[in-house]
């Protein structure tokens, strides 16, 4: 460690005025206008992608929250109807599906999550 400090202390100082190698101009070693334009383009594109990603994530999170609230409301509504006396035969709704009862919807079933679709025959 001591040798490293001595080597650094005795190393020659860099030249006071840095200069380019002979045969090179400053335009050949700097990015120039095209480098600035490309860098600005990538910064702008990255910013727009980040804003779009945040918007999409927020939308997905909001949809999940609304779905959870809807399911909680359905579950609370199902408990109220099952616990209320005189509501009829509550044993007919087995496995979470029931017939829709519409004339044109023969074979349509209403799932426990509210979706309607063709039942498996």
Q: Which features would summarize this protein structure in a list?
A:
elongated, 121 residues, 3 helices, three-stranded antiparallel beta sheet, mainly alpha, single chain
Residue ranges: pLDDT <50 for 5 or more in a row? 94-102
Mean pLDDT reading:
75
Q: Major sheet, described briefly? A: 3 strands, antiparallel
Indicate the structural class: mainly alpha
Strands, count = 3
Beginning-to-end CA distance, first to last residue: 82 Å
How many helices?
3
The portion of residues assigned to helices is: 40-55%
**What percent strand?**
5-15%
Rg over CA atoms, rounded to whole Å, is 36 Å
Order of helices and strands: HHHEEE
User: Outline, from the CA principal axes?
Assistant: elongated
Q: Biggest sheet: strands side by side, in what order? A: 1-2-3
Would you write up a description of this structure?
With about 120 residues, the protein is mostly helical. The protein has 3 helices and 3 strands. It has a 3-stranded antiparallel β-sheet, with no helix packed on it. A hairpin with a 5-residue loop joins β2 and β3. It is elongated and about 95 Å long.
């Amino acid at each position: 460690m001591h040798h490293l400090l001595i080597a650094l202390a005795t190393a020659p100082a860099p030249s006071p005025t840095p200069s380019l190698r002979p045969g090179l101009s400053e335009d050949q070693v700097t990015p120039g206008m095209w480098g600035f334009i490309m860098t600005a383009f990538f910064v702008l594109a990255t910013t727009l992608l980040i804003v779009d990603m945040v918007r999409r994530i927020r939308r997905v999170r909001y949809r999940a929250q609304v779905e959870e609230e809807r399911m909680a409301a359905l579950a609370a509504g199902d408990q109220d109807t099952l616990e209320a006396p005189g509501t009829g035969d509550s044993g007919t709704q087995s496995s979470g599906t029931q017939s829709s009862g519409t004339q044109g919807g023969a074979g349509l079933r209403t799932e426990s999550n509210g979706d309607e679709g063709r039942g498996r025959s």
